[in-house]
Every structure is written in C-alpha cells, then in structure tokens.
Amino acid sequence: MKKYHNKEWLEEQYTKNNMSLKEVADICGVTATTIMYYAKRFGIKMHKRCPRNQSKELNPMWKGGKFKDGNGYIKIKMREHLFANSSGYVTEHRLVMEKKIGRFLKPYEMVHHKNGIRNDNRIENLQLLFRAHYPLGYEVECPHCSKKFTV
Question: Is residue 108 within 8 Å of residue 132, measured between CB atoms?
C-alpha cells in the first residue's frame, strides 16, 4: 500500500509536521494534486491559503508598485497621475522631469536619457525634448551619447 493511501500517515505529515502538499508529494513521488485529492477524500483539513485578492502591501510579491518593463524603463504605480496608462503606471523618468520643472509634461514633450541607459533616471542624465520642433518620424542624434532615435 502506498504511503499517501494511509489516512493517519498523510494527516501526520500534512498537519502535525506542517509539511506542504508539495513536500508530501515529493516524498511519495507523486504530484501535489494527488496528495490534495487523498487529503480531501480522507477529510483532512487543508492549510489556510493566502487570499487571492491581496493587493499592494498585503501581497508578499509587492515591490512597492515599481517594476522594469520589457523596454528597460522603470514604471511606477500612480493611478491618480494625469497621464497614467490603463494599468495606472507612469514611467519614472517622466515623473523625475515633472518634479524638476514643477508641472505635468505636455503630450508633445519627451524625456531623453543622455547616456542611453533607460533605467538611469538621475535628473542630470535626463533631457527634455519637444516633438513639436521635429517633423514626425525625424531621426535625432543625441549630442551626449551619439545615440540616434526617432522623434
């Protein structure tokens, strides 16, 4: 007979030894789903799970509402910001520039990283550019880093 077919053994491992389903499953060489099936079948009370609706600070994965997106920019959660995206995030370099000039950036204003490093948001590394000064699709070369980018 397999260990997990024995109610007493399974209950001892799961409740008294405070092992997770995965740990018990590893001992038995089966999946955690199999252990959960037998635990429910035997009427063993399951451990309390974390609520799925944990938000912000309550969630153990919360990193302060800050993350690096796929393009290398730092995004910060600010739902109340005038130009937050649909998920409530704003790029950090725009926030830094807004703080420096004391107002929201206009839609035709963009912030350039002089050294080309998109997560280096020190004010001395940021430059305010105006799209209105360039025709659409115009290629500009940064005087600091010589990187070319399209405005």
Answer: yes
Report the distance separating Cα 102 and Cα 108, nearest Å. 17
Contact 46, 40 (CB under 8 A): yes
* Beta strands across the sheet bearing 74-77: 66-68, 74-77, 89-91
Q: Can you give the length of the chain in residues?
A: 151
pTM equals: 0.54
Low-confidence residues in the chain, pLDDT < 50: none
CA distance 145 to 86: 32
The pLDDT of residue 138: 64
pLDDT confidence of residue 137:
62
Q: What is the DSSP string of the chain?
A: --GGG-HHHHHIIIIIS---HHHHHHHHTS-HHHHHHHHHHHTPPPPPPPPTT--GGGSTT--SSEEE-TTS-EEEE-TTSTT--TTSEEEHHHHHHHHHHTSPPPTTEEEEETTS-TT---GGGEEEEEGGGS-TT-EEE-TTT--EEE-
